[in-house]
Design goal:
22 strands, about 250 residues, about 45% strand, disordered C terminus, mainly beta, 1 helix, nine-stranded antiparallel beta sheet, single chain
Length: about 250
């Protein structure tokens, strides 16, 4: 598909945890703390933790949004964020959301933690139905954006136009996309830009495009997937990031 690119300018916003350090004569400790109770923001339609070993939906949409593993996708504990995670070993591996996906309202939020992003012409994390080339979050030639199937146009997240390869560092990173008139991308709780377009597609596939069984796997490992039919605010985005991130502490 031949695409054109459109960008718009936005102000960078940070939704991130607070880090404090304490130093004594013998010990230096660094602790990440949060000002909210550690639970995901309320009202999610979909949550896949994968910890049961199967793609059971723990959100409000219930069993209708249980996932189906396709084309070699598996769930196991290897390199999981916590417990177990979704693994996409093949370029066409994907998780299908229910039988018809979850319909997005006018305002929405989708989020997932990923490890080991792939490289290539195109990688897709969230996409619409298999009959519609609608990609809610994808990287095309390494640049992250959202794709309008009607206009066959790739809209980049400006002003930064973030590159997927930036996050190929062997660590987990949380990718969150908020639709609210436009589309804003957050990575690890930090806004990286806004695209001048908002998708109104279903969330039908996670980890890849379901369009014509595409070979567009986003990453090797995906974990803690959330879909909300509302736009989370920056405080809730910080909460979602802080309460699903890997816990760590440093001492010496």
């Amino acid at each position: 598909t031949t695409t054109t690119s459109t960008t718009t300018t936005t102000t960078t916003t940070t939704a991130a945890p607070t880090t404090t350090s304490t130093t004594t004569a013998a010990t230096t400790e660094s602790t990440t703390t949060y000002d909210m109770a550690c639970a995901a923001p309320f009202g999610f339609d979909v949550h896949y933790s994968f910890d049961s070993g199967s793609p059971i939906n723990e959100g409000a949409a219930g069993p209708a949004a249980d996932g189906t593993l396709l084309f070699g996708a598996v769930i196991n504990s290897t390199d999981a964020l916590a417990g177990q995670a979704l693994h996409l070993p093949n370029l066409n591996s994907v998780l299908a959301v229910g039988s018809h996906g979850v319909m997005l309202d006018f305002f929405w939020t989708v989020s997932a933690w990923v490890r080991a992003p792939r490289s290539g012409p195109q990688q897709v994390l969230f996409s619409g139905p298999s009959t519609l080339d609608s990609q809610i979050l994808l990287a095309q030639d390494d640049v992250l954006g959202t794709f309008d199937a009607g206009e066959f146009t790739m809209y980049h997240f400006a002003p930064t136009s973030p590159m997927l390869s930036t996050f190929a560092d062997g660590q987990y990173h949380q990718f969150t996309v908020v639709g609210s008139e436009f589309t804003t991308l957050y990575v690890d709780g930090v806004s990286l830009g806004t695209a001048d377009y908002q998708s109104f597609s279903n969330v039908s596939f996670v980890g890849n495009s379901g369009f014509n069984t595409s070979e567009d796997a986003f990453a090797l490992v995906v974990d803690e997937v959330f879909v909300y039919n509302r736009a989370l605010d920056i405080f809730e985005l910080a909460q979602l990031f802080g309460c699903t991130m890997p816990s760590s502490s440093t001492s010496s």
